[in-house]
Amino acid sequence: MKSIHNRTLLSLLLVVCACAYAMPVLSWGQEGHRIIAKIAYDNLTRRARRAVDQTLGDHGIIYWANWPDEIKSDTIYTESIRDGWHYQDFPPGLTDAEVADALVHYPAEGGNLYRALDSIKSEIINHKSETNPHTLRFLIHLSGDRYCPMHMAHMDDKGGNAVKMKWFGRDTNLHSVWDEKLISSQGYSYTEYADMLERAYADRKREIEQASDADLLIYSYHITEEIYRYQQTWDGNSWHYVYRWHEPMEFQLYIAGIRLAKVLNEIYK
Ligand SMILES: [Zn+2]
């Protein structure tokens, strides 16, 4: 395995500024990233699947999908990589054009997810045959984070981390509910969940593949804003929360999986 100190990954470190939450954030959580990785893998071309398998080695895409969260305490990586790569905050009340603009003119603060993803993708395209496995692991993971609603949330509440909630009697926060608790509330294994979503949303697959990044970003932003509005009127009943939000959460997982497959199929065509 190549060293993390190699030139290509170091060049990525230099282009991304350091921005950090005051408290730790995870991503979709282990199960969410595994669901996304499985949906993606199921939708890869044979050529892309072979390239991904060769680069990642025997453990494969599911195993490595959570690695960028696991290294968050490893100071060999900069603060920006360990934290800021995983999210991009947005203020409330933006127009659709203002949201889409984040993909072109990366915001200067509140994370650097889109800048990191663009850098990583071009890094892989430029060194296809000798892709650093670390770089591919980041692409797989961050492609999931970009569709996690609380990873495009408000900076002033630290992406929902400062929005306190009770979840079935236990103290938690809005960020954690969306990273993990909504998913685990359904009681599926990651394979069961991925298989179920691929069946349930098969008729939306083409639409998702053909949508632009901007369209999907705007769609996801409106989901996030609706989550914040719901928070104002929620009666505090966790079952009501699950009933209202599990389907939108599942659709975000499906979008993330199909879009990751699309990116990998385009890179390894
Ligand atoms: Zn993450």
Would you summarize the structure shown here?
The chain is mostly helical. The protein has a single domain, classed as P1 Nuclease.
Blueprint of the fold:
Layout: H1 7-15, H2 30-42, H3 46-56, H4 60-64, H5 67-70, H6 79-82, H7 96-101, H8 113-126, H9 133-145, E1 164-167, E2 170-173, H10 174-184, H11 190-200, H12 205-210, H13 213-233, H14 238-267
Antiparallel strand pairs: 1-2
The structure holds zinc ion.
Overview of the molecule:
It contains 14 helices and 2 strands; from the N terminus they run αααααααααββααααα. The protein is mainly α. It has one domain (7-267): P1 Nuclease. The chain has a two-stranded antiparallel sheet with strand order 1-2. Helix 1 runs antiparallel to helix 8 (113-126) and helix 3 packs across helix 14 (238-267). The radius of gyration is 18 Å and the shape is globular. Mean pLDDT is 90; it is low at 1-8 and 10-24. Zinc ion is lined by residues 27, 68-69, 86, 141, 145. Zinc ion binds next to helix 5 and helix 9.
Name of the CATH superfamily: P1 Nuclease
- Here the CATH topology equals P1 Nuclease
The molecules bound to the chains, other than polymers, are: zinc ion
Radius of gyration: 18 Å
Shape: globular
Tell me the name of the CATH class: Mainly Alpha
Distance between the termini: 24 Å
Number of strands: 2
Could you list the spans in which at least 5 consecutive residues all have pLDDT below 50?
1-8, 10-24
Order of helices and strands: HHHHHHHHHEEHHHHH
Largest sheet: 2 strands, antiparallel
Mean pLDDT: 90
